[in-house]
Specification:
The complex is a heterodimer of chains A (116) and B (112). Chain A is mainly β and 116 residues long. Helices cover 0% and strands 53% of the residues of chain A. Classes of the chains: A mainly beta (116), B mainly beta (112).
Chain lengths: 116, 112
């Protein structure tokens, strides 16, 4: 089946540094990638939608300059958390629609970000 | 704005018992999804429901969709410990095609 490979699985960074999270579609072309954030014991909240070759669409309240999304190819989308702070510590998950899968979505394995 | 509400949010069950998780959503949609999440893990797809009256079953889980009532249910039959997890419903549609809106999640714990 369609797989989205997400790396890294976990990362610890110092406050003020930047962290890049990658999501690669391994056996299909992901025209659109959705990026979610999940705080402990909470649901998934959509941060932004990225489309290959165009600017990402951010949800209300999500800072574009802080969460940089790049979707330069049909198989790779990246999320960069710039100038990370402890409040950015969260579980980040990417997801893609899979064409021809009966409207299914496939999710990356998630990245646990801890900012110290 | 599409809103998705699940209840209950916490469910403690005895093994062997049956129970139902409810998912209500606020605007018309033709696609509803159920996912399972284990602690520290990402989402695992359980069901995709695409039409009114759709019913799908896998093992001890059965999901149904009533688009007129804007309601989906996830029924658990004869629960076992392995079903302990968080269950999310998610709805696609509204004004943003392709975007999923998730319910709050139901934390299910199955006790011996």
């Amino acid at each position: 089946g369609a797989v989205v490979s997400q790396h890294p699985s976990w990362v610890i960074c110092k406050s003020g540094t930047s962290v890049k999270i990658e999501c690669r579609s391994l056996d299909f072309q992901a025209t659109t990638m959705f990026w979610y954030r999940q705080f402990p014991k909470q649901s998934l909240m959509l941060m932004a939608t990225s489309n290959e070759g165009s600017k990402a669409t951010y949800e209300q309240g999500v800072e574009k300059d802080k969460f940089l999304i790049n979707h330069a190819s049909l198989t790779l989308s990246t999320l960069t958390v710039t100038s990370a702070h402890p409040e950015d510590s969260s579980f980040y998950i990417c997801s893609a629609r899979v064409a021809g899968s009966g409207y299914g979505y496939t999710f990356g394995s998630g990245t646990r970000l801890t900012v110290v | 704005e599409l809103k998705v509400e699940q209840n209950p949010l916490f469910l403690s069950m005895q093994e062997g018992k049956n129970y139902t998780i409810y998912c209500n959503y606020s605007t018309t949609s033709d696609r509803l999804y159920w996912y399972r999440q284990d602690p520290g893990k990402s989402l695992e797809s359980l069901f995709v429901l695409l039409s009114n009256g759709a019913v799908k079953q896998e093992g001890r889980l059965m999901a149904s969709l009533d688009t007129k009532a804007r309601l989906s249910t996830l029924h658990i039959t004869a629960a076992v410990h392995d079903l302990s997890a968080t269950y999310f419903c998610a709805v696609a549609g509204g004004t943003s095609y392709g975007k999923l809106t998730f319910g709050q999640g139901t934390i299910l714990t199955v006790h011996p």
